[in-house]
Predict the 3D structure of the following.
Amino acid sequence: MGKFTPKRDKICPKCGSSYLPRTGTANMCYECREVQCNNPECGKMFSVKPHRVGKARYCSIRCQKKHMARKGLLVMMSEEQDQYIINNYENKTAGEIADDLGVNKRAVTYKLEVFTREGRITRTKRVRKDV
Ligand SMILES: [Zn+2]
Ligand SMILES: [Zn+2]
């Protein structure tokens, strides 16, 4: 039987400790790739791919949704409500739209961010009409 040759230790570029890579692509030690889930109800430590270190904040989509819902950011809005925001964001404030729709103002602000990111609205062109 041939002798098992362990892979060479690598030095973690982040913390400088040596570690034994489990895969050829692991370029950081396990500790440095551990992230705590941002959802306080979960708080689980999970390991992420090196390129997602500093970006990943939730261990799962479920935790992300749960946490955002808790913060009042994720409100299930109908397509009509979405459309109402799109139609009115130029001449109403987020607070006014929220009142009209009977939802949390932060939810409207959040939706505006999403729509902007998706390119459905262009907030840079936003001009409040003089009354
Ligand atoms: Zn490290
Ligand atoms: Zn979690």
User: Anything to note?
Assistant: Residues 33 and 51 are 9 Å apart (CA to CA).
